[in-house]
Amino acid sequence: MEWMRQLFEQYGDFVLFGGLFLESLAVPFPGELAMAVGGYMSSLGTMSVFHVMLLSYLGAIIGTTLSYALGAKLGAPFFEKYGKYMLMHPKRINKIRSWMERYGSGVVLISHFIPGFRHFTGYVSGITGFRFRTFLLFNHTGAVAWVAGYVWLGRLLGKRMEDVLHVLEKFGFWALCGMAGLLAAFVLIKRAWQASREKVRQAQDQPGS
Predict the structure, then answer these.
(1) Where is the VTT domain (predicted)?
(2) Which of 18, 34, 37, 177 has its CA 20 to 30 A from that of 169?
């Protein structure tokens, strides 16, 4: 974490905005760590917590919006041919696409919290023709919670932050499984409820009922 702190002391604004922007375009960068360190620096009085959150948020949403535009403009053939240079292999694109087809806006909403998803959700949303207004609503809303959560985590935990981030990284897969399970349960319950209502409606429409 020391190297990140030194970067903040010299290039704090660029680290937050530029780093989160580049990460949203699938450029490798430890976004969560940068936000948490920014929160920690705000607890020392060297940066304003609002300043840290604003720069992080703007970097994240501008990057994901640009990735959506690139996905819509370049289309699937471009990424099928050149996506491997951005770690966007066809298998990964199809996986994100299938999740979006199954769970819709919910995937966009929580994608910032899912490593390996937030970097590519914008591209895939553009490629698949996901409605732009809906993407902006759910992507930007999810970014608020993501940014605020990690910045305040760093601010509240201070020097203990690095240990906590290691724990989160270690158990991040199980947290992802838990979120996916909750989302799947919600979808199944919703579909079962809609199916039961449809059966009741059909029964009422039958002659003599």
Answers:
(1) 29-155
(2) 18
Indicate the domain borders of the chain.
Answer: 2-171
Most confident stretch, 45-49, 68-72, 164-168: 68-72
Encode pLDDT of 120-152 as tens digits: 899 999 999 999 999 999 999 999 999 999 999
CB 170 within 8 A of CB 91: no
Question: What angle (nearest 5°) sits at the alpha carbon of residue 125, between those of residues 21 and 35?
Answer: 25
Task: Give me the pLDDT at residue 119, please.
Answer: 86
162-182 core/surface letters (b: 16 or more CB in 10 A; e: else): beebeeeeeeeeeebeeeeee
